[in-house]
Amino acid sequence: MQLHKYSLRTQPFNEADTDQSIKGLVSNVLIEFGINPNSVSDKDANMRKAWRLLNVIHIFCVDHGIHNLLMKDCFHNMNYVSEILDKIQSIINKLRYRQHELENEYFRSNEKRFNDLLLSIDKTVEIIDADLASTYIDADDTQVLNEKLE
Questions:
Q1: Within 13 Å of residue 32, how many CA atoms lie on the same side as its CB?
Q2: Which residues make beta-bridge pairs with 55?
Q3: In this predicted structure, what is the pLDDT of residue 116?
Q4: Which of 77, 86, 121, 127 has CA 20 to 30 A from 146's CA?
Q5: How much is the pLDDT for 104?
Q6: Which InterPro entries match (predicted)?
Q7: Which residues are bridge partners to 122 per DSSP?
Q8: Measured distance CA(50)–CA(63) in Å, rounded
Q9: Do 6 and 18 meet the contact criterion of CB atoms below 8 Å apart?
Q10: Phi/psi at 60 (nearest 5 deg)?
Q11: What does the pLDDT look like over 56-74, one tens digit per residue?
Q12: Would you say 104 and 111 are in contact if contact means Cβ atoms under 8 Å apart?
């Protein structure tokens, strides 16, 4: 038997973070996908209660355990790491808050690049058209014409 990991759904969870609300969400997803409810998650008290309410065999995730060990027991004892993590979290929060502005700027800059490309193409076409319409013959063209006449 081989262990497989899947993420069935990622969605906003606007309800209170209680065992009952988690139970309802998890139960609906399990039913929707027709899955045996034996599962792995973190050791949060509300998660444990939700699994108990569902009568599910619950296996605690080792990754979550290591994460909690590092975040709660190790990093907070190292001042510089804690400061860096706080700054990173602050940046993430600001980016999340300004996501719509970033998206608008991205689309605006892409539109500007596209318009600049079209302008460059138009200018190139004008130069080629002017060159084709020109009666001016440069030195290289004169040499080629003389060779053809000889």
A1: 8
A2: none
A3: 86
A4: 127
A5: 82
A6: RNaseH-like_sf (IPR012337)
A7: none
A8: 20
A9: no
A10: -75, 140
A11: 776 666 667 777 777 777 7
A12: no
* Of residues 19, 52, 49, the one with CA closest to residue 37: 52
Extract the tokens encoding 144: 């080629």
Residue 134 to residue 150: CA distance in whole angstroms: 25
**Token pair recorded at residue 90:** 């602050």
Beta-carbon contacts of residue 73 (< 8 Å; ≥ 6 apart): none
Q: What DSSP string describes 30-98?
A: HHHHT----EEE---HHHHHHHHHTT--EEE-HHHHHHHIIIIIIGGGSHHHHHHHHHHHHHHHHHHHT
What is the number of other CB atoms lying within 10 angstroms of the CB of residue 12?
A: 5
Helix axes 19-33, 45-53, angle to 10 degrees: 50
Q: Position of tokens 């899955």?
A: 35
Q: What is the DSSP letter of 3?
A: -
Q: Is the pLDDT score of 79 beyond 80? A: no
